[in-house]
UniProtKB/TrEMBL annotation:
Gene3D superfamilies: 3.30.70.260. It is a multi-pass membrane protein. It is found in: Cell inner membrane; Cell membrane. Belongs to the MgtC/SapB family. This is Protein MgtC. Pfam families: MgtC (PF02308), MgtC_SapB_C (PF21770). Its main location: membrane.
Length: 238
């Protein structure tokens, strides 16, 4: 029988070493995740590591190193589906990316163990743990640092509300003022604003402007007889 023929003590011991290494190393990664109460904790990381090790070890026994390489490639792509399951989107924010990446690392550790590369699997475990522990204080420090306004790309927009009957005159005045300040408009739009008025929206090409210059520009526009209201607004939103 084929099943009895495949029973070999040496291969069985080799598989035991691979799976044990995957279990222990995956457990180390999972302990850190469990301690921080992440979605994928101790059991999940162990199962991913052991599962990857089983697939690679099985392919290694059946088809040698070439088969192990092929299966490892499938493990890399297949673990992506499991990682996608722990990624959540809440109020426009994506959560779980680090957990998904950790699962990917656990799969790599298991694949290395299954390919009889135990020392490499141990080294990979150290790097995964280092990424989740040693880099955490650096990330927290960066996240607590105030955002540098000068490094943020800002969209500056000038809004002018004017009488509909004089919109061409007001539009020409707006363009002249922007040209005088060397702040050309990247985009110009005119919207209806009530029954007798329009809103002219001019998006500036410049992402960095002088606030005092813009305030003076708005004051001059407000002095135009047909202008009901004028103001400018910086925005970092899309």
């Amino acid at each position: 029988m084929e099943a009895l023929h495949n029973i070999r003590l040496e291969s069985l011991i080799d598989t035991l070493v691979s799976l044990t290494a995957a279990f222990v190393l995956g457990g180390l990664i999972g302990l850190e995740r469990q301690y921080r109460q992440r979605t994928a904790g101790l059991r999940t990381n162990v199962l991913v590591a052991v599962g990857a090790a089983v697939f690679v070890d099985m392919a290694n026994r059946l088809h040698g190193h070439e088969g192990a390489v092929h299966v490892a490639a499938y493990v890399v792509s297949g673990i992506g589906f499991l990682g996608a399951g722990v990624i959540m989107r809440e109020d426009g924010n994506v959560r779980g990316l680090n957990t998904a990446a950790t699962l990917w690392g656990s799969a790599a550790v298991g694949a290395a163990a299954g390919a009889d590369l135990v020392l490499e699997a141990m080294l990979a475990t150290c790097f995964v743990l280092a990424a989740n522990t040693l880099l955490r204080p650096i990330v927290n420090t960066i996240n607590r640092k105030p955002l540098d306004d000068e490094s943020v790309e800002v969209t500056n927009t000038v809004y002018v509300i004017a009488a509909r009957a004089h919109q061409k005159v007001v539009l020409a005045s707006l363009e002249d003022e922007l040209a005088h300040c060397s702040y050309p408009a990247r985009d110009l739009e005119i919207h209806a604003f009530g029954q007798e008025e329009v809103e002219i929206e001019a998006v500036l090409a410049a992402t960095s402007v002088d606030g005092e210059v813009m305030d003076a520009l708005v004051q001059r526009l407000t002095a135009v007889p047909a202008v009901r209201q004028a103001f400018w607004s910086p925005s970092t939103s899309e």
